[in-house]
Task: inverse folding
């Protein structure tokens, strides 16, 4: 399988604080890859570097063979790589359906059509189908800002799917979600990966979730890549255990 | 009666009242022309401030630009009165649109308070500039040409002109809000970073919104200059402390981010203001100031905003438990809220 995302020796420092030091990782197309590490180990910074939220100090990020480390967020998104946020971000003043309708693939929208574009019927149908997929169909005419945090998280996930991404970067998708719903969400993530062929890179603190979900895991600590391997290798890696239990 | 029929009937009644008004109340024709102007102010301000979340305190800039552009064409182009007026208004609108495009590419990169402050400077700077430029009369202003029709028909002519402009502005905005453009600027208002993360061309949308707003303001300025008859750089054209502030207030009073809110807000505000002038002469500024404070304190979400929070079902925000059919919608989606 081909490598869809290739991160090479990425460095990012905020003043004297080194958030990422020579981080390299590969994500193969069609896989679910996990990214774990203690709080403050640089996971979200790495996500931000990948999607172009801030420039990297050095290193290279390639998406489907194309160098993207010098691109900004909207350009990267239009290539088909989206991220969701740890602090959920949805359009609170709009209904769920409207949130979905505006989240269609933006690469297809030509700037000169901006003013005159009606919402195509198939967009609305797909929006409703995806809302049903995440279990929000009954709430589709409610203002998104009135949903609970967990529901907003599901909506944000559905919005990401609406844009037909090739790859999703999920920042703690299960944080704040009711434990009984977590199984359903994991099942949906796997279905998205299997049926729609979306590659997933997932930051997760819940070990049960990430060990079951991911096929390959990278572990960061203090901004450096500490370990990588399949879930059972990571689970038994003494360095990872030490990092989580505070031996460092 | 179906929703659509009720809506058409409502529009019909409103248009009927508006068409009959100058015949019924001929003494108030100029006042009512100003009412239409206020509605255009509130609608165009709300496009940015309400629907897109960019509080502009400099929209009066485009009003003044349109006013001066039209007056200069009427003075120098040697066209007949009506041709001069309409060519001037068109030129005023297009010049405002072009300036909004140029300024927008710079200013719309600023967010929140920074954008508000930058636009505030725009109106003030333009006023100072205009009062120093001899070509447009500098501090002594410009006088618009005399209306050639019979005495007493001028007010009616401008009433219908302003009414037409208001209807056109309203319909264009309604059309824009009902499509992808409306959703896009709402998304920018709710979370611009998220919109960017979804790959949206936010700058294009923002600039287009400001250009639309500026275009209609430019035309309204061209007409307003001819209604008033005298263009003073600071008190009429770039009248930040009056028109510039009122546009914001009227939109807030009626309900930011709704289609009808600015219309309601402008109507309530204009009538109240006229009553103050009539019955509280000498204290009208104080009363107006008090009204402004009351609006901001007690109606932070505006009249329609309050109604929407109180009765969200009216706006289609409801739980719909119907089970979806395969690949289609069961209930027709509620008409995109029309308020």
Result:
């Amino acid at each position: 399988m081909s490598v869809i995302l290739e991160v090479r020796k990425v460095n990012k420092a905020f003043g004297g604080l080194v958030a990422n030091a020579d981080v390299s990782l590969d994500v193969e197309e069609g896989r679910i890859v996990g990214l774990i590490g203690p709080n403050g180990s640089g996971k979200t910074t790495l996500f931000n570097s990948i999607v172009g939220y801030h420039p990297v100090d050095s290193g290279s990020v390639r998406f489907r063979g194309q160098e993207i480390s010098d691109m900004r967020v909207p350009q990267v998104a239009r290539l088909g790589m989206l991220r969701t946020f740890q602090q959920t971000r949805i359009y609170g003043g709009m209904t769920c359906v409207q949130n979905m309708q505006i989240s269609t693939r933006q690469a297809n929208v030509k700037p000169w059509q901006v003013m005159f574009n009606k919402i195509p019927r198939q967009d609305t149908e797909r929006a409703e189908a995806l809302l049903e997929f995440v279990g929000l169909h009954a709430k589709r005419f409610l203002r998104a800002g009135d949903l609970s945090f967990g529901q907003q998280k599901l909506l944000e996930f559905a919005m990401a799917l609406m844009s037909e991404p090739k790859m999703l970067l999920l920042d703690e998708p299960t944080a704040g979600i009711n434990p009984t719903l977590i199984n359903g969400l994991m099942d949906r993530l796997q279905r998205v990966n299997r049926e729609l062929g979306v590659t997933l890179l997932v930051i997760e603190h819940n070990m049960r979730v990430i060990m079951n979900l991911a096929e390959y895991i990278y572990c960061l600590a203090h901004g450096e890549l500490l370990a990588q391997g399949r879930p059972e290798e990571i689970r038994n890696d003494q360095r990872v255990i030490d990092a989580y239990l505070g031996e460092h | 009666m179906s929703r659509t029929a009720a809506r058409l009937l409502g529009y019909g009644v409103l248009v009927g009242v508006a068409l009959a008004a100058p015949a019924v109340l001929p003494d108030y024709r100029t006042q009512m022309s100003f009412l239409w102007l206020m509605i255009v102010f509130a609608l165009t301000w709300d496009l940015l401030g309400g629907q897109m979340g960019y509080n502009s305190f400099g929209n009066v800039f485009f009003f003044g630009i349109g006013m001066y552009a039209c007056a200069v064409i009427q003075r120098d182009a040697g066209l007949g009165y009506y041709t001069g007026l309409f060519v001037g208004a068109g030129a005023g609108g297009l010049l405002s649109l072009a300036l909004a495009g140029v300024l927008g590419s710079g200013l719309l990169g600023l967010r929140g308070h920074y954008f508000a402050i930058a636009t505030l400077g725009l109106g003030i700077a333009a006023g100072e500039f205009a009062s120093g430029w001899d070509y447009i009369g500098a501090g002594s202003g410009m006088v618009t040409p005399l209306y050639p029709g019979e005495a007493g028909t001028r007010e009616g002519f401008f009433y219908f002109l302003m009414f037409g402009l208001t209807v056109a502005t309203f319909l264009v905005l309604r059309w824009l809000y009902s499509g992808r453009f409306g959703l896009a600027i709402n998304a920018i208002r709710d979370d611009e970073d998220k919109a960017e993360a979804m790959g949206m061309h936010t700058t294009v949308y923002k600039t287009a919104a400001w250009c639309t707003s500026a275009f209609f303001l430019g035309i309204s300025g061209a007409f307003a200059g001819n209604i008033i008859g005298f263009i003073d750089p600071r008190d009429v054209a770039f009248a930040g402390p009056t028109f510039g502030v009122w546009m914001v207030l009227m939109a807030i009073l009626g309900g930011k981010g709704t289609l009808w809110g600015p219309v309601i807000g402008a109507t309530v505000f204009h009538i109240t203001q006229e009553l103050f002038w009539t019955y509280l002469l000498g204290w009208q500024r104080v009363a107006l100031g008090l009204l402004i404070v009351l609006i901001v304190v007690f109606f932070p979400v505006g009249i329609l905003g309050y109604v929407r929070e109180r009765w969200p079902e009216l706006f289609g925000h409801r739980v719909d438990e119907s089970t979806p059919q395969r690949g289609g919608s069961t209930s027709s989606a509620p008409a995109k809220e029309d308020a």
Notes: The first helix of chain A runs from residue 43 to 51. Chain A has two domains: 1-80+166-248, 90-164.
